[in-house]
């Protein structure tokens, strides 16, 4: 993956469009380049633009953890502080971020993130951002939703946002957190950065599988315990009772079957008798119905024959009328065609006549209007005939008027300039007087200050500072020595007694001196003599030291006062020089203004002469001077009036000539149209008469035809008669068939009724015999069963058998169920034990156990990459993993491979180690792809010169590996060493612009 270009508009401090093109020089051939500029100019905004275009996120907005905090937008909308739309510059209506890159498939793509405000207003509501993806090689746009396009970009570059910010973009101090993070945080970070979330998922699934397996095992145990089983004795007793019950039930069921057979025979006989009675009634009803339908069919048949005969007679009587109607129909068709033809001819003649009359009226109206317009134009020319010369000589006249207007404007402008110059001269005079007064005041202050400076300087020269310092130091040492000796003497227990035993001339047992001044004056503390000087008391020495210190302090105060006076003198000299320069500048301005005054006066005279000359020439063309008053009031309006009049004069002249030429043509047109009107009128009258004649003939034939067949068509009458005769024939045929059918049904029904009566007699005798047999069986059963009814005994025995059989079947089912559950229990026990062992090794509810195991191996791989980079940065340290943990430790080779904690590293050492980890992770995240671009944001400020050189050498080695590296840093030595720089320069008002150097 390789970054080709970064573009954007209106992002943070970068106002307007900006672009960084890595395919153009000097960035094309630069392996490493710096992004420099003052703090807050917008260096990191360039990297934000890259992340926005690719992921619609930035590292800085992701760090806004307080998502519940809302900030006010210009549209009064509340937005989360982590919303990347806040990067849109205030006061702008839209912005975008765009990145061109080479994807893993080798194609060039362009990713674009854009945002705008409603109605394209600076104070409009922020709209949802839009993502777009273009294939530059195919010149087409990828389609899809925002989430689909985001997933597509991740597939193309092969990196998620977290992996991108570790392998392509190393944000400000973002990776240093990994170095000293806790083990859980390290595992989580490694999981996100390397895409190994699978291990956490596996750990959680192992934990869940173990819980489910144990739950399933416990559930089967509970099910087995809940199953109830009988003892063997109880089960045997149930079998015996069931066999006796089944035997008794068989006997009862046999008796029941016999009873049901006898009862069924009685019911069958009763049902047979009932069925025969129903059949007998139905046969009687069918016979009556058939007799009735036969009578109706005979009457309808006779009626149909009569209607057929009447229809034939009626049709014979209409034959003559039908023939007459057909003749009239033929005559009506002819008359209708004649009438239509005459109406068409009348319509054409009417239209031609109307068109000719309209043309004649229009021609007459045009001729009249033309004559009126000629009269109007002629009268207008007569009214303004005395001004014809103005229209003819307009060009020359306008030249003179424009020259006069220009001269007049020049005079007015020069006069206003003269007034302004006079005011400026007065103002400069006032300024000069004020500046001269100020200069005089400053001169007096300068003289006073110089006098004070001389006095202060003379006073300070009288003090010998080195001698004073030497005297103060000597006096302070003597005083301290005296105090020490006094303290030593006072520390002696019998100092007074020993002092009283001293004899002049005899050596002191303490100091060896033969002179003992304290013997003479034991109550007065005296300082020992120094090189034959007089002995001075401590109090006097302290007063002398204070006096000398005050003298030194006074010298120090005088020195500061002298320096202040010197600064004041410099400031006064500068102010006086500025005042004198300002006075000279004002005098120079006065001279320039006087020169401009003379020039403007000359301009007034020159323009006045031109004005008089132009007005005189215009008087000649106008022929008088009456026009000057109107021109002087408003030259522009006067000029427009002249121009409008000349234009109207020429337009009216041309129009009058055209109308005069058109008048004769219009006269001829009117005469031609008038001669053509009589012939058209005659044609119209003839067509009208013919149309009236044809209409009368048609109306007469139509009335005569309406009297025949009631106006109905002859063919319709014949068709109606044929249809009626066919219907009558079909009806008679059906009625004849009905008679035959109902006659046969009646004969058949009589025979059936006779047979049913015989069957009824036989069924009644059989029913009596069957009832007698049933009564005999019932008496025998009651005698053998102690009077108990079969209906009471059989349900009781059946229920008893059912209960015994159910209990035995339940016992069998429970045995089978327990046997099956026992097998399943063994399977679940094995499965539960297996998951329990696996859970003990790698399972956990939060996925941390297996994640730490897996990330331990991942961390080892990362450290191998990081140590390769660390050897290039510094050979003193090597990173290792603390055994059985995810914590890191440092091996210090300069201290005999001593193990050190990462928290003991200095700021510069921590940066080098973090940089090595970051570069190692870049290699780890991109070990399956080639990442050709790397951006490092800040972090070099804590390095000394040697370490900075080592870091630069390491980055140079990355450049030799084919990567293009961009570094953001405020370190001047670093940016000076990098030959190619992208400078982010401030332009005021919070704006910045880019420059490639």
TrEMBL record:
Where does the source fall among the domains of life?
Answer: Bacteria
- List the protein's name: Nuclease SbcCD subunit C
Going by the UniProt record, its keywords in alphabetical order are:
ATP-binding, Coiled coil, DNA recombination, DNA replication, Endonuclease, Exonuclease, Hydrolase, Nuclease, Nucleotide-binding
Species per Swiss-Prot/TrEMBL record: Parabacteroides acidifaciens
Coiled-coil ranges from the UniProt annotation = 240-300, 332-366, 465-492
Q: Name one GO biological process term.
A: DNA replication
- Functional description taken from the UniProt entry: SbcCD cleaves DNA hairpin structures. These structures can inhibit DNA replication and are intermediates in certain DNA recombination reactions. The complex acts as a 3'->5' double strand exonuclease that can open hairpins. It also has a 5' single-strand endonuclease activity.
Question: Which InterPro entries does the protein's record reference?
Answer: P-loop_NTPase (IPR027417), Rad50/SbcC_AAA (IPR038729)
Q: Which Pfam families match?
A: AAA_23, SbcC_Walker_B
Assembly description: Heterodimer of SbcC and SbcD.
Similarity field: Belongs to the SMC family. SbcC subfamily.
Q: Where is the Rad50/SbcC-type AAA domain?
A: 7-265
UniProt signal peptide = none
Q: Which GO terms describe its molecular function?
A: ATP binding; endonuclease activity; exonuclease activity
């Amino acid at each position: 993956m390789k970054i080709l270009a970064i573009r954007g508009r209106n992002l943070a401090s970068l106002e307007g469009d900006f672009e960084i093109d890595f395919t153009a020089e000097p960035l094309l051939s630069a392996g490493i380049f710096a992004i420099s500029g003052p703090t807050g100019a917008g260096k990191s905004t360039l990297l934000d633009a890259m992340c926005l275009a690719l992921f619609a996120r930035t590292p800085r907005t992701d760090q806004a953890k307080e998502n519940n905090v809302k900030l006010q937008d210009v549209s009064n909308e509340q937005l989360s502080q982590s919303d990347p739309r806040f990067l849109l510059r205030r006061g702008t209506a839209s912005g975008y971020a765009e990145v061109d890159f080479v994807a893993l498939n080798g194609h060039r793509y362009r990713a674009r993130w854009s945002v705008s405000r409603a109605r394209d207003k600076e104070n409009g509501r922020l709209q949802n951002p839009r993502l777009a993806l273009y294939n530059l090689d195919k010149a087409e746009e990828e389609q899809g939703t925002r989430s689909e396009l985001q997933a597509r970009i991740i597939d193309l570059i092969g990196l998620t946002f977290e992996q991108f910010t570790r392998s392509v973009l190393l944000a400000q101090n973002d990776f240093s957190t990994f170095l000293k993070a806790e083990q859980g945080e390290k595992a989580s970070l490694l999981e996100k950065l390397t895409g190994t979330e699978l291990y956490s998922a596996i750990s959680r699934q192992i934990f869940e599988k173990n819980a489910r397996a144990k739950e399933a095992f416990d559930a089967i145990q509970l099910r087995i315990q809940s199953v109830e089983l009988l003892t063997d004795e109880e089960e045997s007793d149930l079998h015996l009772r069931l066999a006796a019950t089944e035997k008794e039930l068989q006997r009862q069921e046999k008796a029941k079957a016999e009873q049901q057979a006898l009862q069924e025979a009685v019911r069958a006989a009763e049902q047979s008798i009932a069925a025969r009675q129903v059949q007998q009634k139905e046969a009687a009803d069918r016979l009556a119905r058939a007799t009735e339908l036969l009578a109706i069919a005979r009457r309808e048949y006779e009626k149909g024959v009569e209607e057929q005969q009447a229809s034939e007679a009626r049709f014979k009587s209409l034959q003559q009328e039908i023939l007459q109607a057909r003749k009239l129909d033929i005559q009506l068709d002819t008359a209708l065609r004649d009438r239509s033809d005459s109406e068409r001819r009348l319509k054409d003649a009417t239209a031609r006549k109307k068109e000719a009359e309209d043309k004649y009226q229009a021609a007459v109206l045009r001729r009249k209007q033309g004559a009126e317009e000629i009269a109007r134009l002629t009268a207008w020319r007569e009214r303004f005939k005395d001004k014809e010369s103005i229209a003819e000589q307009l060009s020359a006249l306008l030249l003179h008027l424009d020259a006069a207007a220009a001269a007049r404007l020049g005079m007015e402008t020069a006069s206003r300039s003269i007034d302004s110059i006079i005011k400026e001269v007065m103002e400069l005079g006032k300024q000069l007087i004020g500046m001269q007064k100020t200069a005089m005041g400053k001169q007096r202050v300068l003289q006073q200050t110089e006098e004070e400076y001389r006095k202060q300087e003379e006073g300070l020269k009288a003090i010998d500072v080195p001698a004073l310092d030497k005297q103060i130091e000597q006096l302070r040492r003597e005083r301290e020595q005296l105090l020490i000796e006094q303290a030593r003497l006072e520390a002696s227990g019998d100092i007074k007694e020993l002092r009283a035993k001293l004899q002049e001339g005899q050596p002191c047992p303490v100091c060896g001196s033969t002179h003992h001044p304290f013997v003479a004056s034991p109550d007065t503390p005296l300082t020992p003599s120094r090189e034959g000087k007089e002995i001075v008391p401590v109090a006097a020495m302290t007063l002398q030291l204070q006096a000398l210190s005050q003298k030194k302090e006074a010298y120090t105060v005088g020195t500061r006062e002298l320096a202040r006076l010197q600064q004041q003198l410099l400031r006064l000299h500068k102010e006086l020089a500025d005042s004198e320069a300002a006075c000279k500048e004002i005098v120079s301005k006065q001279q320039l203004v006087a020169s401009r005054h003379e020039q403007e006066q000359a301009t007034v005279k020159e323009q006045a002469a031109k004005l008089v000359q132009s007005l005189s020439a215009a008087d000649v063309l106008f022929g008088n001077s009456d026009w000057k008053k109107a021109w002087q009031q408003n030259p522009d309006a006067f000029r427009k009036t002249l121009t409008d009049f000349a234009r109207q004069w020429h337009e009216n002249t041309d129009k009058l000539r055209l109308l005069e030429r058109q008048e004769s043509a219009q006269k001829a047109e009117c005469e031609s149209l008038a001669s053509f009107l009589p012939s058209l009128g005659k044609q119209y009258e003839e067509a009208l008469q013919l149309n009236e004649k044809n209409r009368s003939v048609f109306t007469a034939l139509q009335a005569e035809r309406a009297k025949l067949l009631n106006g109905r068509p002859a063919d319709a009458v014949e068709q109606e008669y044929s249809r009626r005769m066919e219907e009558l024939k079909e009806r008679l045929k059906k009625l004849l068939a009905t008679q035959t059918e109902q006659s046969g049904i009646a004969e058949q029904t009589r025979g059936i009724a006779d047979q049913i009566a015989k069957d009824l007699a036989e069924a009644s005798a059989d029913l009596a015999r069957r009832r007698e047999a049933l009564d005999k069986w019932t008496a025998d059963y009651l005698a053998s069963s102690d009077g108990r009814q079969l209906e009471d005994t059989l349900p009781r025995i059946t229920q008893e058998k059912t209960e015994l059989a159910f209990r035995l079947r339940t016992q069998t089912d429970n045995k089978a169920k327990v046997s099956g559950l026992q097998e399943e229990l063994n399977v679940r026990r094995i499965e539960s034990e297996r998951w329990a062992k696996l859970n003990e090794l790698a399972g956990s509810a939060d996925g941390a156990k297996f994640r730490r195991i897996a990330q331990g191996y991942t961390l080892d791989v990362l450290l191998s990459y990081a140590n390769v980079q660390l050897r290039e940065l510094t050979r003193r340290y090597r990173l290792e993993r603390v055994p059985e943990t995810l914590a890191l430790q440092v091996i210090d080779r300069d201290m005999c491979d001593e193990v050190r904690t990462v928290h003991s590293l200095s700021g510069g050492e921590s940066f080098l180690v973090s940089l090595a980890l970051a570069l190692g992770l870049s290699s780890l995240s991109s070990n399956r792809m080639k990442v050709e671009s790397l951006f490092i944001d800040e972090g070099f400020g804590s390095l000394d010169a040697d370490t900075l050189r080592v870091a630069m050498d390491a980055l140079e080695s990355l450049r030799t590996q084919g990567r293009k590296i961009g570094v953001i840093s405020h370190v001047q030595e670093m940016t000076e060493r990098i030959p190619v720089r992208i400078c982010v320069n401030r332009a005021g008002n919070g704006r910045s612009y880019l420059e490639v150097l």
